[in-house]
Specification:
By secondary structure, this protein is α+β, with helices and mostly antiparallel strands. Helix content is 29%, strand content 24%.
Length: 177
């Protein structure tokens, strides 16, 4: 069963010289439930752009994006944000942890726009902190963590809401073996 589809996706960026750089041109991708897929290529070829488009964070210039049966860009920005919070986990290449929140708060921030039991959410966060060896670092700010600890915090945050799809931009570059 198809979990996510990109159909004929195109994306261009403006260049400093007033021109355009085509990053995605007619990209098609289908991801099935339970599948593991990688996107490989040299720097600048559109891997991160593809993930941002698929994750509902960057509107393509043309094409269609569907995740979990939903037309992602037919939604309002607010509806798309709620959908992302419940259905899509994203591990960013640069982590995007909130510097003034501690590890536990950064993980729990993923649940801010979701419904559900606070106690259950805290329990899931606790289990993820333990799973990723962060329980002793829970009160530390991101600036006090190693790069690997920041990566694991971002991973725990992405998994907190039990997303239907997990998107990861260079997820293993800073993880300990």
């Amino acid at each position: 069963m198809s979990l996510a589809q990109l159909r004929n996706i195109s994306k261009k960026y403006a260049t400093q010289g007033g021109g355009e750089l085509t990053v995605l041109d007619g990209v098609n991708l289908e991801l099935n439930e339970g599948a593991f897929a990688t996107i490989q290529g040299p720097s600048g070829c559109g891997k991160s752009t593809t993930l941002l488009v698929l994750g509902g964070l960057l509107r393509p210039d043309s094409g269609h994006v569907e995740v979990a049966g939903e037309d992602v860009y037919a939604m309002s920005a607010d509806a798309r944000a709620l959908f992302r919070a419940s259905a899509i986990g994203f591990i960013f290449q640069q982590f995007h942890l909130v510097p003034y929140l501690n590890v536990e708060q950064n993980v729990l921030a993923a649940a801010m726009n979701t419904s559900g039991s606070r106690a259950e959410t805290r329990s899931r966060a606790e289990a993820l902190l333990e799973k990723f060896g962060l329980q002793d670092r829970r009160r530390h700010a991101p600036g006090k963590l190693s790069t690997g600890e920041r990566q694991r915090t971002a991973l725990a945050r992405a998994l907190l809401n039990r997303p239907k799809i997990l998107l990861a931009d260079e997820p293993t570059g800073n993880l300990d073996p």
